[in-house]
Design a protein that fits this description.
The chain has eleven helices and 15 strands. With about 350 residues, the protein is an alpha+beta fold.
């Protein structure tokens, strides 16, 4: 009998209706459509309708599509893995909120993971282990992000705020013994040395004044603070920070490295890849990877132009859209790869 592997049995994504074009951002920050498109490839992104949608509601919408496509009921889900850096509550995580909203009974476990841009790769790697060992049969993995509620829409934060968008992607993972189907391997890495190069430090026990250099880091109070103060909002430290050029340089190095790691582990070549889905961080990064690895246009799918960077949601959204467009077919070799805050990065090689 063939070895048990993990297959994607159903996939779905959801993005909010509200389209925010580059020119719309000019109302709040000094920027131009030309700057954003030239540096990132982004033309527009989606934002939630405040107070009507959130990270959980988007996840519910994406999950319902994935469940339907997997032909299972919500109650068949025996484990949820929820990947987000923008949870609705500081705690509990969104996993239990998703379970509640889908009406799943308590025979299902729920795990939240916080691995930012590479979170979806981490999440399917965890799910893969549970499925291969026979512990679970139907795992719902979701990446969902609400960036629009937490960005710095002043000129100080413009390098970060123009990039990010809201959205959610979900997959149902199940065991398979079919030949030429399922996850072949996953590869995960971390380098905490650069944790503060792309970070949102607040709501953490070390909240304080952060200027981008760890040596300038001071605690805001004797006991630290779990809260964002008025001062932090005024001085702009209560928002995500990114050393863009530093992150860019690391990303273009790590992406090809971890993709090659996946190919080498499975005795495959770059030419064997039918579809590469890179995390949608910046179109220029994806183009750099494509050129460096000698991939043809039809071997790579990008949709950052429409949705911006949706961190944990970007890989499942792009994977789902590529599949819906008929660009991924049964048996195809698909490579997923991501790099981001942490730094953490990873890849997954699978046969569709
Ligand atoms: O998803 C996780 C992984 N993330 C990434 O991999 C992102 C990696 N980094 C990047 O994609 C790029 O660094 C950015 C797109 C974020 C920024 O592009 P950059 O070419 O690195 O720009 P920069 O931050 O070095 O800024 C260059 C100039 C600055 O002006 P001066 O000092 O040269 O006069 C900025 O003030 O561009 C200015 N600038 C802007 N101008 C117009 C920064 N943001 C904007 C903006 N509109 N939105």
């Amino acid at each position: 009998m063939n070895q048990t592997k993990t297959k994607i049995a159903g996939i779905g994504f959801y993005v909010p209706d509200k389209v925010v074009k580059n020119d719309d951002l000019k109302e709040v920050i000094e920027t131009t459509d030309e700057w954003i498109q030239e540096r990132t490839g982004i033309k527009e992104r989606r934002y939630i309708e405040r107070y009507k949608e959130n990270t959980t509601t988007m996840a519910v919408n994406a999950s319902k599509i994935a469940l339907e496509r997997a032909s299972i009921a919500a109650d068949d889900v025996d484990f949820i893995i929820f990947a987000t850096l923008s949870p609705d509550y500081y705690f509990p995580g969104c996993g239990v909120l998703l379970q509640r909203e889908l009406g799943i009974k308590n025979n299902c476990g729920a795990l939240d993971i916080r691995n930012q841009c590479s979170a979806f790769i981490y999440a399917i790697s965890i799910a893969d282990q549970f499925i291969k060992t026979g512990m679970y049969k139907n795992i719902l993995v979701v990446g969902s992000e609400t960036h629009s509620a937490g960005l710095d829409f002043s000129n100080k934060g413009r390098n970060v705020s123009v990039i990010f968008g809201d959205g959610a992607g979900a997959v149902v993972l199940q065991p398979t013994t079919k030949e030429n189907q399922g996850i072949l391997s996953t590869h995960l890495h971390a380098e905490g040395l650069h944790a503060e190069k792309l970070a949102f430090l607040h709501l953490g026990a070390h909240s304080g004044v952060f200027t981008g250099d760890t040596s300038d880091f001071e605690s805001s109070g004797e006991w630290g603070s779990l809260f964002v103060t008025k001062e932090m909002i005024e001085n702009g430290t209560a928002f995500p920070y990114m050393d863009g050029p530093f992150v860019f340089k690391n990303a273009v190095f790590r992406f090809p490295q971890v993709i090659m790691e996946a190919l080498n582990a499975n005795n495959k070549n770059v030419s064997d890849i039918n579809m590469l889905i890179p995390h949608q961080a910046n179109l220029r990064i994806a183009q750099f990877i494509q050129e460096k690895m000698g991939l043809r246009d039809d071997q790579v799918y990008n949709n950052i132009q429409k949705y911006g960077n949706t961190t944990a949601a970007s890989v499942p959204i792009a994977l789902c859209e590529a599949w819906e467009l008929g660009k991924i077919k049964e048996g195809d070799l698909v490579c997923l790869a991501a790099f981001g805050s942490g730094f953490t990065w990873g890849s997954a090689l699978l046969q569709w």
